[in-house]
Design a protein that fits this description.
seven-stranded antiparallel beta sheet; 4 helices; alpha+beta
């Protein structure tokens, strides 16, 4: 295993903003050298653009496409992964709020102890139609990071990746927060 990549460079540089780099360090563990693999940000964008041009009728659930998978550079242990997919709809109704925190970013955003998700609407340039995009962050069980603001940090990371993808897609008003999303919002 190597020395790892700079936090600002992993996964196509999605963590360049100081608040995002800080959240990544807090989630991965202070001083943990990271390497990224299975990162396919171009495929994420290309597949979601294709979804926006595909006819709405007869669509089935899209499998998540890895935007970023981070491992410890020291021992190769999985730290976290972020995937994207077209969702068939924005989840509605009241989520089970035990163990789940809601955030004010996108159309629906929640975080638990090892998982965060953001759903946002993306209207691309015609002839594409509006699609719903799901960004999902999963923290590995072997990642022992556990601290008071962990859910907030996970949401900050998922939101930064969502903003990166929404910008690449040219989404018109995806309603994604700048920086760290605030707690609250729809659940």
């Amino acid at each position: 295993m190597g020395q790892g990549e700079a936090l600002a460079e992993v996964c196509d540089g999605f963590a360049r903003q100081p608040v995002v780099a800080s959240a990544l360090e807090a989630t991965a563990g202070k001083g943990v050298a990271l390497s990224s693999s299975e990162a396919e940000p171009e495929r994420v964008v290309n597949d979601l653009k294709a979804a926006g041009r595909a006819p709405q009728s007869g669509k089935s659930r899209m499998k998540g496409i890895p935007f970023c998978t981070l491992e410890s550079a020291k021992d190769g242990k999985n730290v976290l992964s972020i995937t994207f997919r077209e969702a068939l709809a924005i989840p509605r109704g009241q989520a089970n709020t035990d163990g789940i925190t809601s955030y004010g970013t996108g159309a629906r955003a929640t975080s638990s102890d090892s998982y965060a998700s953001i759903y946002f609407a993306c209207r691309m340039e015609p002839p594409a139609h509006e699609i719903v995009v799901a960004a999902e962050l999963e923290r590995a069980d072997e990642n022992e990071a556990d601290h008071e603001g962990l859910r907030d940090d996970q949401m900050t990371l998922a939101n930064a990746a969502a903003r990166r993808v929404a910008d690449a897609l040219g989404c018109q008003d995806p309603r994604l927060a700048v920086g760290a999303p605030a707690r609250g919002g729809s659940s």
